Amino acid sequence: MDKDNKSGKIITNVIWKFAERILAQLVSFVVSVVLARLVLPDDYGAIAMVLVFINVANVFVTSGIPTSLIQKKDADKLDFSSVFYFNLVLSVILYLILFLTAPFIADFYNLEILSPVIRVLGIRLIVASVNSVQHSYVSRNMMFKKYFWSTLFGTLISGVVGIALAYKNYGVWALVAQYMTNTTVDTLVLFITVKWRPSLEFSFSRVRRLFKFGWKILFEGVSNTLANELQNFIIGKVYTKGDLAYYTKGQQFPSLIVNNITASIGSVLFPAMSDEQDNKNSVLDILRNSVRLTSYVVYPMLTGLAVVASPLISVLLTDKWIETVPFLQAFCILNAPTVAMIPRHQAINSIGRSDVFMNEHIAARIVAIIVLLLTYKISIMAIVIGCFISSGFLSLIVAFTSKKYNGYKYKDQIKDILPTLIGCLLIFGAAYPISLIGLSTILTLIVQAVTGAFVYFLYSYLFKIKEFKICAGFITGIFKKIKDR
Q1: Nearest CA among 55, 69, 201 for reference residue 128
Q2: 204, 79 in Cβ contact below 8 A?
Q3: Which of the two residues, 186 and 75, has the higher pLDDT score?
């Protein structure tokens, strides 16, 4: 297959993966909105405190070694089975640690309910250990439709469970049930739809060899999670549960966009780039196309979300969540660099340089922690401003390593996202002034959203943006297939 056809196939897979997840994420979005209307901010704050510890433990069973199964060219049944059993045992050990320390965590926050919540929600780690190996198998074999069904059913069923319990005033337990059901159903659906099963064989030497690659990614995942969760840990202790709820809810909306799109991209790019790791030009070509496409799709979504933040929160979550608005707007900007970083990280890892990936994040996390310690006593917004500093520092490092190891020149890095940035400025210039007219809240939201989308599409059409043609062609193709049926 020639370079253009191969690049086009990967772009199509990225778009298809993204399109598949859209339905599942729309369901997730609706569920989160309904739950936010039914559950108090303080209950969300309590869950956020617990997730500080659950999320850190979860990285150990979902990152590192499972990821190395994708990168290893000759990974076989013994590799997958060995990682499966290793992960399972590790998750049980981590759960026991959480179970035993739960009362001390509850005492630290002076919130008694946290102890049983940690002990119940911690079971999710054991399920996630199975799920992580399933995901590695699906990614390695490019079976991306399996993700769609597992995510869709997990999100839909867990949403029904969470909403039903929230309606019955179960408060924090409604959120616990939603989280547990989501992971469990996701795993069960993959178990049914994916043929892989662990065999009764184990090789510690295989695990050790996989760990030589995976530990660097694991380290980055742990340090990244620790840096992110350290903010929630400090805010939960220094400020109120409500403050933590507004802060984490502000992260949720932009993260819902960025994390799911970048996860879709990463699951396609990493195996594709790993397959081409010996051909630097091919990896660079895939990288540049991915940066352009993801930026074109995600940047205008984040821009639009920041513009409509105030009416959106009022309409969807009610005014009890209005203090979320400045955090939501800030995180729209903070999440933007991540969009272009993910393809560049995958390109570095695909050529076996996970050490570079690790080192650049060590430096960035050190800066992030120093900035956090200097700002946390001032205010929560000061913490957010500090995040801009550490995020900018990481962006510069990633730009440098992309040039050095993948040949991604600085001028090309700017050139690939510049047309999209111009489009985003046009969205802001057209949609923001509408908020000053004095329309009703819901009318302001509708007019801003429609105006922003129209301006962006018109700009893309008039200036013949390549990514617009790719997306339009893909959507047209889907409708044509539906019509033919």
Answers
A1: 55
A2: no
A3: 186
CB atoms within 10 A of CB 71: 23
- At 71 the pLDDT is 64
Write out the two tokens for 193: 């739809």
What would the mean pLDDT of 187-194 be, rounded to a whole number? 83
Task: Between 292 and 22, name the one with better pLDDT.
Answer: 292
Q: Nearest-CA neighbor of 171 among 230, 245, 240, 107?
A: 245
Examine the pLDDT at 434 and tell me if it is beyond 90. Answer: yes
Count CA atoms within 13 Å of residue 167 on its CB side. 8
Given a contact cutoff of 8 angstroms between Cβ atoms, the answer to whether 268 and 14 are in contact is yes
- CB atoms < 10 A from the CB of 263, how many? 17
65-74, 307-316, 369-378: range with lowest mean pLDDT:
65-74
Is the predicted pLDDT of residue 419 greater than 80, yes or no?
Answer: yes
Structure tokens at 197: 């099963």
Query: In the numeric block, which tokens belong to residue 105?
Result: 């965590």
Length reported for the chain: 485
Specify whether the CB–CB gap between 451 and 430 falls below 8 A.
Answer: yes
Q: How far is CA 203 from CA 76, 199, 385, in A?
A: 12, 12, 48
What is the rounded CA–CA span in Å between residue 395 and residue 339? 11
Phi-psi region of 142 (alpha: psi -120 to 50; beta: other; left: phi over 0): left
Q: How confident is the model at residue 468 (pLDDT cuts 50, 70, 90)?
A: confident
Domain residue ranges in the chain: 239-485
Could you give the CA distance from residue 262 to residue 24 in angstroms, rounded to a whole number? 15
pLDDT band at residue 451 using 50, 70 and 90 as cut-offs: very high
Phi, psi of 95, rounded to the nearest 5 degrees: -65, -40
Distance CA 65, CA 204 (A): 12
pLDDT at 254: 87
Other CB atoms within 10 Å distance of the CB of residue 172: 21
